[in-house]
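Follow-up to my earlier ticket, as requested here are the two runs.
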Amino acid sequence: MTRVIGLMSGTSVDGIDAALVEISGSDLDLKIELLAGATYGYPTELREKILAVCTGTPLSMAELAALDDAIAFQFAQAALAIQTGLPGAELIGSHGQTVYHRPLGVKGEQPVTTLGYSLQLGRGEVIAEITDIKTISNFRVADIAAGGEGAPLVPKIDACLLRSSTHNRCIQNIGGISNVTYLPVSEGNWLEQVHGWDTGPGNALLDLAVEYFSNGRKTYDYNGEWAASGTPCEALVEQWLAQEFFKIPPPKSTGRELFSRDYLKQCLVESEAYNLAPADFLATLTELTVASIVESYRNFLPHMPDEVLLCGGGASNLYLKQQLQIRLDSVPVLTTDQVGLSRDFKEAIAFAVLAYWRNLGIPGNL
């Protein structure tokens, strides 16, 4: 039994998720127990700096290095805090904070434009020094070096923890960006058919819109209540779905580089023709997230799933979940909690598992 801490902060930049787990076993045959899970918010000033960098604000090398260390310090503090009153961890798996992600370009172009690139701040070496715990990091960079997209990283973990012998499942994570893992019934050569990709925006555009309409007083729409009071504009949803990303077949990944504050500004401009109230605009953005998920299933899966399991912050958005269920009709929409895996800390648990595998020399990708 190995005690491992997983640390994760996603594109929503709403804090650091920490999970302390006990893991035993090897490869896909693991036993995992969650000992503690918590989210530690970034200091306001640091969060604002991270969001600014994500949207292209230029930094000097000295400023970038200072931001890197400041994020690492917060990750280390989260790792120390999650162990309070519990047996200490032997290993840390840290995702870091993504500030830039560029997927693979079109083959045949120059390497500088063809190769994918992903930058996570919060150096593992600093975390290891502060905590005195072996720390494994740079998972996305390693995946790209091995020929992957760098995102999503969780399909093998989903196959390990959420496979079913009776149901074809989609594991739908809704963070700042939404990503799916398709898990066929676990029989025969099922593992060869497991695949995952980013489906489009999750909470990122919604959170930016809430901040805009509330003049900075709110950073997210609790339970989707504001959006639920509005009416989505289906014509605008269809217009937005024409965006090129949604047409690209998997594997594919995206981030705030595309679904950014500038992207939101363009959406606001396009909405002017429909004279939408803020609640209507939020309902329409919610519908974009939901519709892009369902269209991705219809266009890129061999068939629709038997059930969908939600995780990530969007799984707590009751309005979003309701609208997803409406679009999926008879396909049940559940959360990973309902099959025994915390929806709030699934991603942090995933990076604990990736670190555990790496420590044993077991590949974390399929």
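Run two:
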Amino acid sequence: MPSLLVEQQNRITVVLAFSTTHRCPGYEKTRSNIPELFMNRLPIIDIAPLYSDDQTAWPTVAEQIDRACREWGFFYITGHPIGPARISDLLSAAKTFFALPAAEKLKIDITQTAHHRGYGAIATEQLDPSKPSDLKETFDMGFHMDLNHPEVLAGKPLRGANRHPDLPGWAALMEQHYADMQALAQTLLRAMTIALDIDREFFDTRFHEPISVLRMIHYPPRHTASSAEQQGAGEHTDYGCITLLYQDDAGGLQVRNRDGEWIDAPPIAGSFVVNIGDMLARWSNDRYTSTPHRVISPLGVDRYSMPFFAEPHPDTEISCLPNCSDAAHPPKYPSVTSAEYLLSRFADTYAYRREEQADA
């Protein structure tokens, strides 16, 4: 069935129609039915039907998401419930926080916490080991657990209380947004269960008390870089299940296509960029693609973005889904828990995590 190309408000939505009778094994990631003109445009998917009372609308959206995950590992979503007022409030809060003196921000220094929460100064993170550390500063928060929670008392990794700056309204805003983004992520994952032909509650049961991360990022202008090689965020794949990204108007996000070329993923008003992370790629035996991407720091302006990394409960086993392997297509990856995988990737990315492991 041919692709349907729909023009909406000076942008192109690539709606890819295909049969629902497909399984993971033997799937060939072909692009032969996509017009060459649209090879380097990420799909835009309206997910509003997922919020309607008409359950029969879900398979159509699930098909579009499935195709985007297989072909790109990246797509835009519109029609979600996160409104412009919320985004405006978050941007204002982020700009206020990152404008604080360094000493104030370092009161919640991420390198001084065992559960990876708080402020990450510029060059704390190095996503591409072949490049200098990233030209960005960050704020990370997760699922809040009081100090008397059994998992915190047991010393489970990545469990603990959030560490918020002392700014009026900050904590309430961020905690509410975290909850709303987790709900949005699970709506998308629920749609994916249709395409993956697995139980509708598969992901919901594994995202109870998740280790998902909400991050605020400030990218200073490119002229502040320590060298010409320093990027806003070096080439990398995301570690978790799926990522939902808000990006401001500065641009700079680039995605590597199947030909190895870097293409721009420009901001689109009212949208989130969604991409597949390594955990979902492992779960699906690479049916869904965890695609390399990077951020090129903008010229002369600051860039702000807000990714939400959806990651399941730390004890969740990440192993090949039963219908994503067969005798001819065995599982590619060994089983690993969510926490084990994340901690191994953190050690690759953060010097302070490597030092902690060396001291252990």
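The only thing I checked on run two: The chain has one domain: 84-359. Let me know what else you need.
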